[in-house]
User: Fold this.
Amino acid sequence: MRTTDLSVNYVGFEPADEVHAHFYQTLNDLLDEAPAGSYVKATFSRLENGLYQGVLLVNSYVGPFSATTTGGDLSELLFALSQKVHEKLIEWKFGRFLQPTSSQLAAGLV
Assistant:
């Protein structure tokens, strides 16, 4: 686990150790999918109405991949956030192979 590339903050509550460990593992798995040199920052806040808000950011040299959502269950919140960012990472991975390279453009291949 690359803890220097991963930051998880909690505002207004402190989760159980098992929940914290699950969050770190899930976010570390997401970091493994991200472009090289990326870092993940996640903030989970307890709102006044009792719900939680999660903000997830994967920052990389190709740009940010982020998601924000609100919900009552922390595990579902983490799942929703990680799925949204995962989908954005997949779009980026497939999209980068669809773009012609500079050598292809120079050779008139596209």
Summary: The chain has one domain: 3-106. The radius of gyration is 17 Å. Helices lie at 17-33, 74-98, 102-106. Residues 24 and 63 are 22 Å apart (CA to CA).
